[in-house]
Q: What sequence folds into this?
């Protein structure tokens, strides 16, 4: 399987509609790939909090339609990063979209873990409440977003739901890019899956994005990694290597706890909470 991760930057000098058109053109340019992946909130800009309301659209809005048309024109599966979705109840969500080669919207994921530290995401958006992998011609795919990387239980739920490929869309700052590299590899290794992690590049306000988009195999090995600037990172993945890794090293069969949501909820409800000994620092730079 050939995957292409488009490590894009947001140019706020361009009108929003032009940003969408430019990235759709970049998707179409990768006809021949099996899967194309975009970063988190690549059109609005993750850190452009004042633009969330203005750029929010329903899932049948013009941005989603343009992305579906780009997927069809390129004849690729398109993980279209995420957009600011205006839900049917009027609330806003950070929502990832997966399109098929026919342009049809196959699957969506609303970001579970909203980032609150020196970010307005938690104030502006509502978190998702549904977590499922989805069968595609490329295998069973799970979708996650940026800050989710710090919560391994979310990835384990998707792995238990049969995910063979986990896609991470992100706007991860350069200040903590060492965390990014560690966490992406760990999520692949511990779940014995391929992980495609597409980060943003450039600057958004006073925040520098870290780039370093990555493709990682089920053994935690980096197949391909981008630099810091804008680029299209291509990676060839062997879908059969997931089954081989789990057969050669069957760690899942030795687990004593499950991440199944209903069982996890009962476990956490019965466990006493330990008191916090150290208050979290508020002096570090913005990170995910």
A:
């Amino acid at each position: 399987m050939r995957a292409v991760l488009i490590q894009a930057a947001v140019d706020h000098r361009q009108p929003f509609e032009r940003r969408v058109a430019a990235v759709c053109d970049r998707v179409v340019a990768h006809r021949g790939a099996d899967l194309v992946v975009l970063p988190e909130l690549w059109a609005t800009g993750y850190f452009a909090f004042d633009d969330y309301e203005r750029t929010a659209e329903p899932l049948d809005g013009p941005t989603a339609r343009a992305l579906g048309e780009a997927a069809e024109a390129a004849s690729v599966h398109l993980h279209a990063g995420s957009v600011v979705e205006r839900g049917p109840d009027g609330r806003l969500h950070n929502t990832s979209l997966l399109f098929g080669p026919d342009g049809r919207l196959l699957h969506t994921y609303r970001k579970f873990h909203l980032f609150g530290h020196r970010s307005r995401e938690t104030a502006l958006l509502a978190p998702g409440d549904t977590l499922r992998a989805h069968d595609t011609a490329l295998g069973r795919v799970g979708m996650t977003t940026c800050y989710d990387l710090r919560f391994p239980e979310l990835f384990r739920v998707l792995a238990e739901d049969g995910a063979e490929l986990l896609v991470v869309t992100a706007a991860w700052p350069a200040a903590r890019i060492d965390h990014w590299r560690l966490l992406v590899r760990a999520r692949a290794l511990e779940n014995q899956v391929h992980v495609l992690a597409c980060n943003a590049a450039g600057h958004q306000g006073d925040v520098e994005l870290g780039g370093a988009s990555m493709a990682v195999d089920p053994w935690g090995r980096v197949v391909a990694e981008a630099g810091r600037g804008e680029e299209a990172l291509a990676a060839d993945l062997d879908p059969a290597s997931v089954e081989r890794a789990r057969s050669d090293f069957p760690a899942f069969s030795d687990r004593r706890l499950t991440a199944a949501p209903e069982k996890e909820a009962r476990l956490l409800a019965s466990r006493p909470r330990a008191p916090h000994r150290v208050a979290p620092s508020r002096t570090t730079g913005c990170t995910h």
Summary: Residues 2-269 form a domain with the Nitrilase/N-carbamoyl-D-aminoacid amidohydrolase fold (CATH 3.60.110.10). Residues 3 and 35 are 5 Å apart (CA to CA). The two ends are 29 Å apart (CA to CA).
